[in-house]
Amino acid sequence: MSEAVEHIKSSDPQAPVTRKGYLMSIKSGEPIDIKDCDVHGRCRAVTDFEKLNRIGEGTYGIVYRARDSRTNSIVALKKVRMDQEKDGLPISGLREIMILKACNHENIVNLIDVVVGKSLESIFLVMEYCEQDLASLLDNMVQPFSESEVKCIILQVLHGLEYMHSRYIIHRDLKVSNLLMTDKGCVKIADFGLARLYGEPSTTMTPQVVTLWYRSPELLLGSPIQTTAVDMWAVGCILGELLSHKPLLPGNTELGQLDLITDLLGTPSENIWPEFLKMPALENFTLKQQPYNNLKPKFQYLTAAGLRLLNFLFMYDPKKRATAEECLQSSYFKEPPLPCDPKLMPTFPQHRNLAQTKQTTGQQTNIELPTISAILGSILKKRRVE
Ligand SMILES: Nc1ncnc2c1ncn2[C@@H]1O[C@H](COP(=O)(O)OP(=O)(O)O)[C@@H](O)[C@H]1O
Ligand SMILES: [Mg+2]
């Protein structure tokens, strides 16, 4: 046994677990060794999975496409990022595991298992594999989604959200890169690293969540109370993005984001949002004055029902904002063009795997210049990641 382990054993049970870890005896309070054969407990080991390629890396983890050698099936393996942790699993990883385990719905990504690496420091979520995420799909697709395809995607997101919200789960980071799609056209909400449970009465949460572009006005204005309405605002942004084929409110800073929202929807007031003037951030600045709602000129080809839905999702007052259940009743989904059947959604090349294969095999003999759309796509993608 190494000196370091000896040291930890004898002196400081609170010290970071950097090797295989140890257990504390309930009887004596003394640390006890974990036998090699018990290191993984009842968890499967990640070595059971053959990593095929990296498909994503975001704020909280790296994601691989992998083959389960027991079942031969393809799965997604998400490594829980531990680097800043001193003593155990980061809260974001724990939350994600707990919440995904509690969810069982076809529009929420399925957590198959949690497996461990060599040391207790590496923990992986094994999830069903989805061929696409909407961000890389939007960046790479030649022809934008038709309106009936957009309706099909949004309806599935709403079904997933209705399920989550009825279980008091708020996602808090809905955006196109966290929406996955299978080759069968099934859309799945993923990345529950920021998700939280909320109860009545509402608890205080840190407002610095949700990527800027999809962030609701109450979060931007520093409201300590977050409800399921923050997810519904993000749905409005995603619907707008899918319909106009570009991000709807791509702000660079929080103030810039508020400016973009005000330009699109007009300045909020106490009349339409009674709590507006109590928002903490208004102590530091005032919003610019812009009296018009510009949704109609922005979405000229959208029907009255479509505009009603967008306006309902973009209610400034979170209490008045549409719920997932209400959106599902919207006449927008019942009028032509009708939402297409998920099974009829087109299939797309798997860009994430193609890019990786080229890189890893190094067999790219023809040096091809990237197309303009690819360059624009990668700039957009970069900004999305930021
Ligand atoms: N189950 C999955 N199937 C396919 N790709 C996935 C899956 N889960 C995640 N990904 C890919 O990995 C990326 C990052 O995963 P995500 O769960 O969003 O983690 P992060 O917290 O790092 O953003 C996603 O945008 C997506 O491209
Ligand atoms: Mg993500």
UniProtKB/TrEMBL annotation:
One of its GO terms (biological process) is regulation of mitotic cell cycle. Keywords: ATP-binding, Kinase, Nucleotide-binding, Serine/threonine-protein kinase, Transferase. Residues 49-333 form the Protein kinase domain. ATP binds at residue 78. It comes from the Eukaryota. PROSITE patterns: PROTEIN_KINASE_ATP (PS00107), PROTEIN_KINASE_DOM (PS50011), PROTEIN_KINASE_ST (PS00108). GO terms for cellular component: nucleus. GO terms for molecular function: ATP binding; cyclin-dependent protein serine/threonine kinase activity. InterPro entries: CDK, Kinase-like_dom_sf, Prot_kinase_dom, Protein_kinase_ATP_BS, Ser/Thr_kinase_AS, STKc_CDK10. Belongs to the protein kinase superfamily. CMGC Ser/Thr protein kinase family. CDC2/CDKX subfamily. This is Cyclin-dependent kinase 10.
